[in-house]
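Propose amino acids for all 921 sites.
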């Protein structure tokens, strides 16, 4: 029997691809382009597990498929190599993060190459390479030197804004800027000091320095983004996080909020992903309204989308970080307020937005006047109010808002109904906040919500107590991090004024330091380099998302030393045609990269406002954890089927010492010293483990290394099996029980080309109609499925095909050669070897996908089931073009049918062409 020796074959072709640069892309092709990209990985110390390659395999299938469909394909790979894990390791060991990162990348490249990906490695980039982050710093400088003109709806050079200030002050300027910008004249501008002018310009720049509430993590010594904090703890390490004011660099992403929303309608992304971004951006059409504070010369201003419900406001709530809390707090409430604020403001905004169950608040002791009915209402502090959204003040209408209702009910505050009619009872499941007509609402009574809102806005604008406004939930992005392993921010300070470096001074390279932690006085790690600090350089570094916000563009021209990427190459490759990555990046990387791309579009650097034309979020391959059950108080373990008889505790077991749920007990005893004397209570002479599907994680001992699968079954088996597990977008558990089927399929495919003595033997004889039908049916299904990004079904199709050809004992070149091309995107190694054996000297990736012909799929005959008085009695194979009258004659002449007719003439014969024949007696 001919055996397929995958180990030799796969290594041979991986070396050949590398040596000959088989997948090197060029811009001078006459073919249509196709840019397929994976979200590049952070090179962690643990390397890849079998869940990581899922998206890479799917995108590689697409890249290889597009090549044989006649496209010029760009399929690069690189590394998002700045990151906190390497820095934490440096803090613990003193080893420079660059060394750790280099070692990790080497391992990743080795693992990726073993799986046979068709990456153009000549375009590899690393975000921690100074040659790369020079251009990340350059983009920062451009953002610093631009402002957002709302009139033209684009970013424009700050120099033009300065000229306007010199001639007209800031009159007539419609800008995305800080809320506290004051009016000044041209004469004022000239009189301002350099520091004052700088401070004013920072309120307009697209990257700016300001006092900001941040998530400060003392344990990590850095500021964290909202998405890096969960339940008041850092996502990495679980360290406590506190909210505090710090001077920080920020990115004015809010300037692009409306364009980020509109752009979602122009791209082919999963609808769930678009909805996540729409919710995060949170556009609201509403109004600003002022509430006078009783006995104080102060007004609290709210942003509301439901100005029509103001008659129902029974309290006002403010954010725990609100700057006026001290002034609003009465002496009697001081201790309670301070205690509450300390606790509440240390929860991240993301936690507070998502936690709809917890009700907490504190009365300040102050009151405001409801401007619609002149009622005195209390001012509370509530952590569901966010300082960064709107004004940090909310007018609470308990009858129309579920959070307000829960709060008012919990603290026994008044609830005034302002709508009546069907679906207006907030305690019922069918509650609709915009249903019914207004009630208890003075001049708005009897109006619908749609009618009441413009009427209420007209009222507040006439009384000069408010005005209509569009608001966004999204806040500007904190950009600085107080850590070492990140891009240096290209800024220096002189007389407390920030200046950006000249392009000729880039890159500003990370300096050497003695320890990778903050100084003893709490300054960022970069302060440890005295020369760097004395030059006045910014001591914070960029966040993890900086380098990943534009990397897709650098792949187009990675070696360019004079520009970010040459214009002709950017114009050639254009948008990423297929972007593959996880849904967890919805409000991080995917939003920031769209923001930076839009800015670069405004600068004329890219012709496309959106970077990623199509996005697919691959599902997660989950681990299947295995458990041994220890009898409490002993070192004895009971098999899963017997554990109900004992008081046990489940212990995670290394999945690599479990085979089909059966534990290798000797390996278990060697696995950990404390288990060396373990005893076992068996069932049927074996120890059966329990199972549970969980996230693949080292802590759960359920990580499966792809290297082990490749060594045992081969890379092509791994590639096809990961696709075979199910639809790409769905999460599914890793289970090797079915991998043997894929492995055997590849061996069966190999044997079609070889005789029983392992000699390559392919016939040049003409194929039969049946063989052609199998071929063209397969080609059609595989092409259609890959075109719609369904990568699991082609595996099944190929399996059926090989089974059918095996039955036909087909070894004909006219059948096997096209099948080899079609299989090559999924199983490239075996395809390359067979393609070579078929006599070809060039890679199968240069071949053309075979054209399938419909004529070979047309059935020439049909098997008619013959039913007599409702029961199927016979089957006849007849030509599909046979007239109904002849079909009837053939049926009545059939021996089996005649037997059931018993010499009698039927009452009726009903022929449904190419379906069925019914004989009625």
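Proposal:
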């Amino acid at each position: 029997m001919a055996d397929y020796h995958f180990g030799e074959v796969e290594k041979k072709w991986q070396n050949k691809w590398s040596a000959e640069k088989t997948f090197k892309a060029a811009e001078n092709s006459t073919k249509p382009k196709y840019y397929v990209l994976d979200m590049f990985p952070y090179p962690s110390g643990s390397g890849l597990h079998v869940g990581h390659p899922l998206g890479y395999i799917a995108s590689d299938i697409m890249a290889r498929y597009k090549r044989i469909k006649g496209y010029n394909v760009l399929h690069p790979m690189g590394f998002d190599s700045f990151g906190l894990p390497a820095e934490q390791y440096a803090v613990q060991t003193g080893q420079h993060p660059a060394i750790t990162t280099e070692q990790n990348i080497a391992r990743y490249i080795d693992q990726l190459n073993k799986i046979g990906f068709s990456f153009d490695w000549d375009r590899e980039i690393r975000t921690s390479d100074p040659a790369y982050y020079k251009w990340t710093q350059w983009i920062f400088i451009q953002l610093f030197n631009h402002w957002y003109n709302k009139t033209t709806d684009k970013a424009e050079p700050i120099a033009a804004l300065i000229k306007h200030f010199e001639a007209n002050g800031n009159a007539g300027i419609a800008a995305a800027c800080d809320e506290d910008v004051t009016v000044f004249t041209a004469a004022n501008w000239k009189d301002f000091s350099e520091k004052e002018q700088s401070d004013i310009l920072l309120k307009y720049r697209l990257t700016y320095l300001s006092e900001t509430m941040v998530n400060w993590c003392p344990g990590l010594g850095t500021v964290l983004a909202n998405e890096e904090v969960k339940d008041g703890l850092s996502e990495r390490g679980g360290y406590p996080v506190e909210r505090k004011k710090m001077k920080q660099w920020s990115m004015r992403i809010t300037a692009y909020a409306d364009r980020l929303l509109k752009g979602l309608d122009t791209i082919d992304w999963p609808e769930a992903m678009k909805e996540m971004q729409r919710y995060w951006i949170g556009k609201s059409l509403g109004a600003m309204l002022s509430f006078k504070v009783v006995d104080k010369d102060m007004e609290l201003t709210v942003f509301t989308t439901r100005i029509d419900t103001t008659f129902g406001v029974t309290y006002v709530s403010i954010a725990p970080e609100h700057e006026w809390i001290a002034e609003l707090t009465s002496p009697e409430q001081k201790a309670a307020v301070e205690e509450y604020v300390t606790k509440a403001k240390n929860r991240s905004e993301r936690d507070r937005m998502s936690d709809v169950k917890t009700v907490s608040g504190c009365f300040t002791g102050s009151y405001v006047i409801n401007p619609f009915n002149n009622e005195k209402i209390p001012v509370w502090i509530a952590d569901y109010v966010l300082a960064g959204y709107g004004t940090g003040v909310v007018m609470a209408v308990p009858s129309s808002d579920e959070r307000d209702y829960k709060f008012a009910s919990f603290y026994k505050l008044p609830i005034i109904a302002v709508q009546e009619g069907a679906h207006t009872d907030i305690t019922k499941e069918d509650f609709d906040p915009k249903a019914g007509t207004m009630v208890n609402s003075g001049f708005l009574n009897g109006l619908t919500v749609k009618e009441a809102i413009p009427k209420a806005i007209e009222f507040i604008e006439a009384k000069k107590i408010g005005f209509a406004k569009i608001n966004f939930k999204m806040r500007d992005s904190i950009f600085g991090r107080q850590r070492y392993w990140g891009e240096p921010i290209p800024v220096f300070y002189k007389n407390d004024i920030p200046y950006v470096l000249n392009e000729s001074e880039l890159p500003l390279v990370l300096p050497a330091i003695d320890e990778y932690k903050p100084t003893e006085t709490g300054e960022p790690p970069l302060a440890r380099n005295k020369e760097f600090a004395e030059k006045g350089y910014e001591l914070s570094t960029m966040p993890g998302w900086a380098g990943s916000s534009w990397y897709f563009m650098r792949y187009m021209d990675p070696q360019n030393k004079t520009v970010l990427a040459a214009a002709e190459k950017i114009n050639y490759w254009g948008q990423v045609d297929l972007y593959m990555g996880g849904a967890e990046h919805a409000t991080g990387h995917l939003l920031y990269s769209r923001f930076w791309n839009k800015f670069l579009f405004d600068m004329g650097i890219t012709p496309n406002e959106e970077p990623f034309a199509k996005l697919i979020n691959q599902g997660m391959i989950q681990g299947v954890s295995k458990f041994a059950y220890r009898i409490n108080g002993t070192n004895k373990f009971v098999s899963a089927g017997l554990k109900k008889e004992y008081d046990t505790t489940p212990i995670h077991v290394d999945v690599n010492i479990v085979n089909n749920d059966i534990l290798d007990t000797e390996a278990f005893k060697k696995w950990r010293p404390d288990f060396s004397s373990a005893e076992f209570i068996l069932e049927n002479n074996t120890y059966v483990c329990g199972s549970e599907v969980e996230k693949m994680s080292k802590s759960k001992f359920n990580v499966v290394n792809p290297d082990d699968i490749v060594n045992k079954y081969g890379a092509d088996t791994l590639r096809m099996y990961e696709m075979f597990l199910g639809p790409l977008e769905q999460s599914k558990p890793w289970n090797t029980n079915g991998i043997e089927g894929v492995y055997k399929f590849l061996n069966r495919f190999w044997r079609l080309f070889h005789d029983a003595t392992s000699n390559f033997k392919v016939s040049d004889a003409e194929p039969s109609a049946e063989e052609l039908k199998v071929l063209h049916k397969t080609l059609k299904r595989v092409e259609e499925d890959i075109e719609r990004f369904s990568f699991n079904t082609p595996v099944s199709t190929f399996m059926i095909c090989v089974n059918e050809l095996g039955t036909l004992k087909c070894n004909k070149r006219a059948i096997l050669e096209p099948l080899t091309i079609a299989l090559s995107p999924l199983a490239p190694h075996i395809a390359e070897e067979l393609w070579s054996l078929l006599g070809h000297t060039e890679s199968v990736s240069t071949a053309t996908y075979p054209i399938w012909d419909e004529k070979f799929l047309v059935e020439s005959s049909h098997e008619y089931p013959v039913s007599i008085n409702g029961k199927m009695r016979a089957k006849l194979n007849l030509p599909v073009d046979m007239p109904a009258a002849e079909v009837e004659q053939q049926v009545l002449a059939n021996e089996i049918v005649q037997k059931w007719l018993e010499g009698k003439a039927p009452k009726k014969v009903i022929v449904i062409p190419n379906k069925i024949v019914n004989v009625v007696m």
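The mean pLDDT is 93. The radius of gyration is 35 Å.
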